[in-house]
Amino acid sequence: MAPERARAAFVFPGQGSQAPGMGCGLRESSAAAASVWQVADASYGASLSDLVGAGSPEDLRPTDVQQPAIVAASVAAFAAFNETLGVDGAAVTANGYPVNVAAVAGHSVGLVSAVVAAGCTLVGEAVALVRDRGRFMATAAFEKPGRMAAVLGLDEPAVESLTSAIRTETPGSYLSVANINAPGQVVVAGDLVAIDRIVNEGRGAGARRVIPLNVGGAFHSVAMLPAQAAMRERLLAVGIDPPAAPVISNIDAGHLVDPSGIRAELANHIAAPVRWLDGVRAIEALGVRHIVEFGHGSVLTGMLRRTVKGIELHNVSDMASARAAAAALTDG
Questions:
Q1: Using one digit for the tens of pLDDT, what is the confidence trace for 217-230?
Q2: Among 30, 108, 173, 321, which one carries the catalytic annotation?
Q3: Is the N or C terminus of the chain more exposed, i.e. has fewer CB atoms within 10 Å?
Q4: What is the pLDDT of residue 100?
Q5: Are the CB atoms for 182 and 307 separated by under 8 Å?
Q6: Is 288 or 23 the better-scoring residue by pLDDT?
Q7: What angle is formed at CA 140 by the lines to CA 134 and CA 145, rounded to 5 degrees?
Q8: Active site residue: 107, 220, 269, 290, which one?
Q9: How far apart are CA 96 and CA 98, in angstroms?
């Protein structure tokens, strides 16, 4: 590491950041990014890059396509950033890395991208893992149908109270908080009837808006317990090394610094709420001056703008933004 440099955190987006064509320009302009996509194609078992490059939004909707595509695009962006730094590969190196990385974090499936960037596992292993993760989650969603909705304008305790009331009044409901993303932005997951109720009743309870999300299931809820169990078994075959920088937990915002903790997190967070806001607060407490989001779009950067003050935010999705972020982080 470089202790004289300003501290930085690297973050990686999850579902909702995908779009047809994401990463295509970067593949053409960065040899490092192109190499990541080649490995991703081989590990996925089909041309993931063609699916992303020529597919429609509907083609990217299945979780076993969407999740590997997001991880590939994010890791490719990080590899391009490393390329501008003169660093080979798609990981922070333990010694001599030119940026002072205080932590890495990822939102939901983005946690897998973060684990790759921390040097815990290789991108080929990660793409195959999240392909299976997506399949496990799709199967669980088929067996226990559900949806998700974003509740805007209420804090977590108010949303917890609302979900508890609806759950109590709805036989068989498993409605619960699934993501705490930013102040006044909480996502819930649950059975179809309960989600309809919160969409219709949320404004009456004080929410500014309640928006149904176009996702394939009630992710980060008890509906995903079978996927969690399958993922735990699948992870036994995945090599995980100690991270070069702490990985921030989605579950409790703790610092994951050993392989056993990271392995447990990668399974357990599938059925647990993503406490992203707590993770951001944990990053703030590290005294970072920069947070860099790697991947298509700027979903996390948008949340961060509503959450942090006095921290420079960067998004790397093409070579121009990779060079700009690299210059900002190595100049101080």
A1: 999 999 999 999 99
A2: 108
A3: C
A4: 92
A5: yes
A6: 288
A7: 115
A8: 220
A9: 6
Length of the chain: 332
The CA distances from residue 184 to 14, 53, 158, 248, in Å, are 19, 35, 10, 22
3 is written with which tokens?
Answer: 């202790």
Place of tokens 């060079």: 323
CATH topology of domain 7-140+224-330: Malonyl-Coenzyme A Acyl Carrier Protein; domain 2 (3.40.366)
d(CA 148, CA 326): 36
Residues of the chain with CATH 3.30.70.250: 147-215
Residue matched to tokens 């961060």: 304
Mean pLDDT of 307-325: 94
pLDDT for 86-125, tens place per residue?
Answer: 999 889 987 789 999 999 999 999 999 999 999 999 999 9
Q: Hey, what amino acid is at 169?
A: E
Task: Name the nearest CA neighbour of 112 among 101, 102, 100, 124.
Answer: 124
User: Architecture of 147-215 per CATH?
Assistant: 2-Layer Sandwich (3.30)
What pLDDT, on a 0 to 100 scale, did the predictor assign at position 142?
96
Confidence at 304, pLDDT banded by 50, 70, 90: very high
**Which residue, 169, 165, 166, 186, is CA-closest to 177?**
186
Residue 290 appears among annotated catalytic residues: no
The structure's pTM equals 0.94
- Residue 210 CA to residue 81 CA, distance in Å, equals 37
Q: What is the location of CATH 3.40.366.10 in the chain?
A: 7-140+224-330
C-alpha span between 27 and 70 (Å, rounded): 14
